[in-house]
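Lab channel / #folding
Pinned by the channel admin:
"Please post every new chain as: sequence first, then the C-alpha cells as a reply. Keep commentary short and put observations after the output so the thread stays searchable."

First post following the new format, from NK:
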Amino acid sequence: MPFSKHNTPVWIIFLGDMFLSFMAIWIAYLLRFNFNIPYAEVKTLPLIITLVLIGRAISTLVFQTHRGIIRFTNTKDVERIFISVALVSALFLIINPVMFWIRQVYLIPYSIIIIDGILCVFLMVTARFVVKAFVQELNTGKKEKFKVLIYGAGDTGLLAKRAIERDAGAKYKVLNYIDDNPQKVGKKVQGIFIKSGADLQEMLIHQNIKLLILATETIAPAKKQQVIDICLANNTRIYNVPPVKRWINGELSFKQIKKIDVKDLLERDPIRLDTKLIEENLTGKTVIVTGAAGSIGSEMVRQILPFKPAKLVLLDQAESPLYELERELLDERNVSCVEVVIGDIRSKERMERVFAHFKPKVVFHAAAYKHVPLMESNPSEALLTNVHGTRVLADLSCQFKVEKFVMVSTDKAVNPTNVMGASKRIAEIYVQSLGQVCETKFITTRFGNVLGSNGSVIPIFKKQIERGGPVTVTHPDINRFFMTIPEACQLVLEAGTIGEGGEIFLFDMGQSIKIVDLVRKMIKLYGLTVGKDIEIIYTGLRPGEKLYEELLNDAENTIPTHHPQIMKARVQEQDHEMVKLLINDLINMFPAQDNAGIVKKMKALLPEYKSNNSIFEELDRPSL
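Reply from TO:
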C-alpha cells in the first residue's frame, strides 16, 4: 500500500506541533536577546515555556488543527493554524499589562510574543507542506508523470493547475500554459512558462504531451475546434474545465475536469436572442408545450421558464419521463407555474378538454414520431400522430383563439424519401393553409439532426464505443447537419417570436458533416485507434434513409430575417379547403391499416415524395 494511504496518527501531529511551539518560543528568546539570554530571563524561562505550551495545547485541541490529514493540507488548514496561534499570542498580550499592574513586571516581553507567534505559524505551516510534498514525491516514486498543458493562463487556468496538483499531482505534471494573449506569452505564472497557441502543434509532437486541459470560457468556437483537431491528430487527450457555476461549493476539483463531449466537436458561436421580443411573446401568458417529456420539448420548457409565463403546461403521453421532468423543475428550479398533463395529441376529446381548461395563448408543438426506420415499418402510426395529431392541435388552436402555434418540423420533410418526412411535410402544409382562415399565427420551424436528442445516432455511437465496438455506420458517404438541443430550442423561441403566420423558418445548421468523420473523432476522444482498438462497419442505408439531407425544397427559396441564423422559406400557398379534404381522406384510411394504400395516398399529396431504400419504392415506378 502506498505510503500516502497511511494517515499519520493525530497524537503524533499533536506532539509535533508542541515541539514546534517549543522551538518557536526558544528561538524567539534567542533572537530577542541576540543569542545571549540574560540570567534573569533564564530563571523564568521554564515557567514561560510551560505556560506557552499549555496555551498552545489547549488552542490546538479547541481548533482541531492536529486532526487535518497532512497530505491534503490546504488554505483552510493554514487559516485554522493562524487563528489558533494568534489567539494564544493575543491572550499573552492581554495578560502582560495585568501582570505589570500587579507586580510591576511584564510576564513576557512584547517583542518575544510577536516573534513567537510569527515563528510558530511559520514552522507549523512549513512542516505540513514539506511533509505533503515529501509524501507526494514518495508516492510518485520513479514513475514518469503525464505531461499536461493548460490552455488558458487566466484565473480558471490557475485553479485548474491547483486542482491537478492537489488531487492528482502524483500522476500529472503541468508543463506549460498556452494562451493566445500576446501580453501573457513569454511570462511565468507560478513558475510555469506561458506559451503561444501557435506553438501547440510543435509541443504536442516533440514533448510527448498526454493531456491538454481547456481552462478558458473565452475561446472562440472556431479556435476551439482547431485546438481539438490538433490534439486528436496527435493522440492527445482533451479535458474541459466546467463553467464556474457548476463547481462544487465554488471550488474546482480534478474530478470535475472531464473529457470533452461530442457536442464540443460541433460547437459554434453562441446564439444571441432578442430577449425583449421573446418576453413580450411569452411573459404572463399560458403556454403549452406538446411532447414536453422529449429531448426537444423538455429543453423548450427549460428555456421558456426564465421568461415567466403565467402558466406552462407540460403535455405528453410518456408518463415516466414527464414525471422526471416535473421533479426536476419542482425540486431543482422551485417553479410554481408548471402544470403537468398526461394526454395523447391524437385524442380530440382529451385535447379539447386541455385547451378549454387552460386557454393557452402560445403552443409549441414538439410531439411527433421521429425514427425513420420505425415509421417506414409503421406508416399508419406516423399518419395518426404526425398528421392527425397535428391537425387536432391546430384546429383547437383556431377554436380557442391561440395567438401563436409554433410547429417543430424536420429537414426530412424536404423532398421526403421516407414516411416520417412525408408525414411531417403534410402536417406543415395543413398548418400553413389553416392560417389562411384562422386568426392564429401558424409558424413552422425546420432543422436537422439534434445532438443527444431521442433518435439521434450520437448516443448509439457512444454506447458502441464504450462497449468496445464495432461502430456501425450506414454508408461511408452519408452526411448530416447537426446542432445542439439548446441551440435548436433557442432558435425555435426566436422564430416563434418573429413569425407573423404562414412561414417556414429554416435554421443555419452550419456545414453538413460526414458521419464517418464524426465517428472517427469520437473514437479518438476515447483515446482509441480506429482499426486497432475498435472497428467501423458499414451496414447499408436503412429503410427510407438518404445520403444527404436538405433544408429547402427545389421549388422553394429563402429570404433573410433580422437574425443571421434564421432564414425564411418562400413557399407556395395552398387552398385550405382543398388541403382539408385531401388530408381528411388520408386520415380516414387509418382504420383499414393498409400501409401501402396510405403511402400511395401520401405520394399523391406530395409529388416530390420518392421512397429510398424502402419497400415502397415500387409505388414510384410508373404503371404499365
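NK: The first strand starts at residue 146 and ends at 151.
TO: also worth noting, The first helix runs from residue 10 to 32.
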